[in-house]
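Q: Hi! First time doing this. I have a protein sequence and I read that you can turn it into a structure. Is that right? Here it is:
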Amino acid sequence: MNSREEINLDEISIYGILRNLALNFWLVLLAAAGAWFLVTGVKEMSWTPRYTSSAVMAVNSRGTGNDAYSSLSLTSQMAGIFSEVFSSNVLKDRIAQSLGQEEVEAEISAAVVTETNLITLSVTAGDPRQAYMVLQAAIDNYDTVSDYLFSNAVLRMVQEPDIPFAPSNPLRIDRIRTLAAAGAGAAVCACIALLSVMRFTVQTRTGARRNLDGRILETLPFEKKYKTLRERFSRRKKGILITSPLVGMGFAESVEKLAAQLEHHMTRRGQKVLLVSSVAENEGKSSVAANLALALAERGRRVILMDADMKKPAIWRLFDCRDEGAELLDYLEGKAKLEEILQEREDLTVVLQRDSVKNSSRHMDSPAFKELLGKLRTDWDYVILDSSPMAFTSDAEFLLKEADAAVLVVRQDWSDVRAVNEAADAIRQSGADLVGFVLNAFRGGRSAFRHGYGYYGYGKYRQKQGEEV
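A: Yes, that's right. Below is the predicted 3D structure, encoded as structure tokens:
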């Protein structure tokens, strides 16, 4: 994974870290739940339930009117000796014989109640029935062991043996599970935050100016794609276009400023064909290309927007163009004429491509495509090419040979800075004029854990048409 070699605080977006935590909160919950169940499983596997049956007996004198010894100290002494009798191996052997067992699989204990003549007799075993039977057998057989020691003392039952219904050693792990879950969740949060900081992406405008090898043209603020629940669940979804009354003023103004800068730059140099690309998918290059074309058209220029991303075409989605008219591929294969692939949308002329093309590079480098651009140069003021991302296909390389200028769209906290600069160098080496970078969706970029780093996650790009532009 790409990471920073040097961390500058002004290049770190706190909002981005918080957004990464929010977007990946399911990982935090998963880690917490995993720790919870792990502790529960380990404890339950190592826990053996034990059941305790108890009885209370009093030490009384034999053959006298008193219920207890006259001296409390002597009574306590006798009770202590009785407790030793109950814990003796001799009594355990008698109990085993009476139960028909080789040995007593239980723990017998006797404790004297302080400053009384009472003895609490307890038997703990792995089975409640076994605990009760051993205790009853101990009471029935203790006199055979103690008679020769105490001829003038006898035990009187105060509390009959009880049958245990619940373990005497309950599994108390609530606190441990809570601490484990909280610790695991906190550790994952720390890892997400650390990875967000260490990733060498454009997170702030200061970082962009410092690390990107080129001019920053404009910063486009994040614009929410779906304004209402109806739009979110609608089958016919349109993209973010400045012609929509629902688009924010900040976004529209930023696009207008970008269009003014590019028009000034290209007019001074006599340039007409502008390529709009990015390093990775989902950085918003298609949205930038479409809105830039619309802004130039609003300035009274004759603009044509061509979807030259034949791997994952998206312009038709932005303008909600379904199966209407011929496509770019039809013209390149000689199945349609130029006027048949030109469509008017939002005061703009567009050339669409709806289906993904496997051998798209062959068409981008074909004489038919070069001829098409030659015709468009003659009849339009500007030709905007929406190119495929540069890191995953060679289509952009062939388009750069025909383009006069290019801009790179860089989404906040998305692609590695080094990959962006490598793409910029490739544009310059092709002979095209790299006008600069457009910082897109500036707010808190989506997390790399969910969408992939700049060079990763593009396998699906070759397999299906995309949803995000």
